Amino acid sequence: xxxxxxxxxKTSIRGGFGVFYDQILPKYYxxxxxxxxxxxxxxxxxxxxxxxxxxxxxxxxPFPAQLQTTNxxxxxxxxxxxxxxxxxxxxxxxxLMLGYAGSRGKHLIRLxxxxxxxxxxxxxxxxxxxxxGRRNSAFAGIFQRVSDAESFYNSLQLSMLKQFSRNxxxxxxxxxxxxxxxxxxxxxxDFGNVVQYGLDFYDRTADRGLSAFHVKHNLTFNWTYEVPxxxxxxxxxxxxxxxxxxxxxxxxxxGHPFTVRLGFNRSGNLNTTSFxxxxxxxxxxxxxxxxxxxxxxxxxxxxxxxxxxxxxxxxRNTLIGPGLFSTDLSIVKTFAFSEKRRLHFRTEIFxxxxxxxxAVPSGLTAFTNAAGAVAPNFGRITSTVTTLRQIQxxxxxxx
Length: 399
Description:
Blueprint: E1 2-3, E2 11-21, H1 27-34, E3 65-70, E4 78-90, E5 94-113, E6 119-122, E7 125-128, E8 139-165, E9 168-181, E10 209-210, E11 217-226, H2 235-241, E12 244-253, E13 257-258, E14 282-283, E15 303-304, E16 319-320, E17 324-336, E18 342-350, E19 390-398
Parallel strand pairs: 3-8
Antiparallel strand pairs: 1-2, 2-4, 4-5, 5-8, 6-7, 8-9, 9-10, 9-11, 11-12, 12-17, 13-16, 14-15, 17-18, 18-19
């Protein structure tokens, strides 16, 4: 939908709404058969010896099997997207755009262990009862896929565009946004900072937090400048001086969220879907958890162990990783031999200032046992999200 309120082509108001459906992957139902008894039996081995990790495993001994299950009535995931914007033509070949864009996701897939220990409320705090065992003692973990997760996205968008004139063009875009969901993905490869398993199958709100791909601030600008010198020159001087173009793309954005975890089942809910990806510590009031350096990005003093058989009060994806700054530059020289024959020589420089853009910490496990032992690599960043400075050259002939 578009509307020109004044009818002079200077102002336009645009809006749109759409509903987009996802598909339920057949592999979810395939897992429910192929990964369950009698075709497959899975269990967990506690403290296996090395290097023969199955030395103490007796395949004939009775042990509870783990199950992969899928809700028999999965709903088709869908997303509603909506936007509205106003555009205004400004002097000097500039166009200003101010808009809002948002979305709401329904029936998204999430994965969690449904066979947890029962819980009771003690002084308003959920307290698990691991001594009572699992809800169904005949099985170990029961990994259940359900379609009750939701997502919410809202953003304010501002951009200015200058059409090419007087030898240059430019564009600036800024987005202020917030993305919240119950699950950003159920596969470990979806995002590097994703926690694909739910903390508590019966309490979806415990996992509601910033999306793994949330970016609060995102500023991008690009420009092109054609050097105007020597347009009327001919011969060797004209070939060397005219035909130069400089281009730039610069991105500045805030970091992605992540979650600090525990390395053991402190809550006692008997969750077996990778303890380190579930349990969270308590937050110590008044202590800034972010130190900022790659060797120790997080301050362990900002976290503490929750009481036994309870969950920590740290929310999912409440901490923000390092921001990103990247600028790329290209220089193009065009040799025009005739109206149709041209030779273009390009020099492209990626990450011009050779600035390191660090990823979220890889050491996210704070405490490894009930005694409060600190993981040796806690808070350490071991990778970057952009490469070092790269320079490449290109040559293209048009005829």
